[in-house]
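Justification of computing resources. Each target in the renewal requires a structure prediction run like the one illustrated here; the chain below, 279 residues long, is used simply to show the kind of job we budget for.
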Amino acid sequence: MSTAAPPHRGRRRGRNQRLPAPALFLALIAIAFFALPFIGLLWRAPWSTTWRVLGDDAVRTALWLSIKCSLWATGFAIAFGVPLAWLLAQVEFPGRSAVRALCTLSMVLPPVVGGVALFFSFGRRGLFGQYLDRWFDFRLPFTTWGVIVAQTFVSMPFLVITVEAALRQLDHRYEDAARTLGGSRWYVFRRVTLPTIRPALIAGAVLAWARALGEFGATITFAGNFPGTTQTMPLAIYLALESNPDEALILSLVLIAVSFAVLVGLRDRWLRGATGPAA
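Resulting structure tokens:
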């Protein structure tokens, strides 16, 4: 007697369906809406001056500062964001929804508003910054550490929501089995939970890094714009737009290329593993 063929266990493919003509037309308009601004940049870019612009000492300093600060911000986002995501996903406590909203608020706030909030909290005369200055002689505004704090503030939520979603989908039977065999909570978290959500953790970390790399509003409001100290690539682009538009175009294309490569790479490799099989 014949039996039904076993279900296909490979990667699921999206169904190739034909959209109704009006919907397809609107979708194409949406694609053009997102594509045309970048096409305009590519058309207008002064390609002949690319290497001269990228070889400028001020540009290289701003690029290096952006990379350094964004990596520090990503490290802090991982160190504090992963425990926060685990708390939000696994622990029931009063006001959890409010805490989640608070911890992801900087995703939707205008960055300048976030910078103002940081300034009045951690500025030299801020609610908490005055004690850092008085007790430890440590100041955040207008310093490289101020850039890192501002970037962490706006980028950590991207890691938190990505890792929290993965933790909510986690099959806890593996963790329970490891505890039954004598594993401590820390051992199970380190050897079972983290490897299981590794794709989501990598995706969240890279998204947080990309967001930190492109941060502008909170940085300039909280840390200022001092070459070699707080002037990151987005700030250099802003200044160049007024005095040297060609330089601004080249630097903008550099950040666009980095962000585009990150998003394409995440979609093809990590986001699928973070949220289950791709549709």
